[in-house]
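hey so i finally got around to running the thing on that chain from the lab meeting. sorry it took forever, my laptop kept dying and i had to restart like 3 times. anyway pasting the input first so we r on the same page abt which one it is
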Amino acid sequence: MKLRIATKSWPAYSAWNENIGNFEGLSIELLKYVMNDLNFTTEKIQTPEDDKWGSLENNTWNGLIKMLMDNKTDAVFAPLTPLKDRQDVMDFSLPYHFVRPMLIFKNHLHENNSNERGEFFFLQPFSNITWILICVSVAVMGFLLMALEKQKSYIFSTEHLFFLGTLFNQGGGYGINSKGYVRIILSGWWIFSITMVAFFSGKIIADLAVYKAKYPFDTLEDLVYSKDYTLITLGDAAYESLLKNSKSWTYQALWAKIAKAARDNPDVRHTDEKVIIQLVLNGGYVFLTGGYEPIINNHPELSIKNMGISFSTYNVGVQKNSYYNVLMSNSILKAQHSGMIGKWKKQFLSTPKLKIFEKTRFKSTISRVSLRDIAHIFYIVILNISASLLTLVLEILLVKLKYYNKYK
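ok and heres what got predicted. didnt touch it at all, straight out
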């Protein structure tokens, strides 16, 4: 039996190869496998006249889906996603590839050298308020100890040098006496100092040893309000339909931004991925797509980011209620179980992991330890003072009790 097959050019899945005069890629290898498994043959592979994937435009379907509906083809072997509105007019086989949607962009905002650090880099592990509270703690604890020791001179002296010295793991040369409340003050401060020094040392070592990349946006909401980047996707493709028909406020806002950008530059909704990639390379655009592997392979200067958008799938498309659907789904299962699809993925979709960020430079950032992160450490000082004062009161009471019993 001879089937009519349609596809649309897309790198690594169904790309046209001038050298062999035919299409090649994962979807085409699957086509060959299915035809051989079912003992079918194919006519020359067709492409849609309007070069579109298939979307509902003015209540009329276009692209590959129109070819199925007009009975111009029996099956579509291309990276086609089964959206709900498409499923109303055609059938889809079992999926042969699961796709994680990614954002592809050129990070033109931050191109600083990651090795450039400020003159006061050593202060950056702690936030400003944390440093202020540490200084206040040294002063307060010094004055408190002076008061407890009944010092006459209220200037920075041995007590302050002790509390400051412990923070540098040097001590202060302060002789610990036998008074219980003094010992509590000093031991509590040592716990505070050791903890603070551990936080500081660990943080500064991590910042020096580990390079952190800062993205120009973190969420899809950031892209809605961004003045530097505009989200785009392939015209009349699955992700455009997803944004356009979604009830999510974020998706609707992104689609409104795309529509506005398209009025100024029609290429924003172009159906040719080469045009879209060129826009991304020029800067200022973020491309939402599923088949990012071949793009990154060809343009390692671009960056990718996963925004947590739900997985989508690529399936073979057939006419509504076509008996070919079950046959092709069974054949796809055989290809999965035999490991052939995994082999084709390695052949056409493998992406050198180190190349993804190889030529993209980000602004290096230091995640500073805020007061909220170490607030519990300052509680040690408060509890320490409270325990010391309580001990002082008890010692005074014991002294008075001993004096009372002696002269009773």
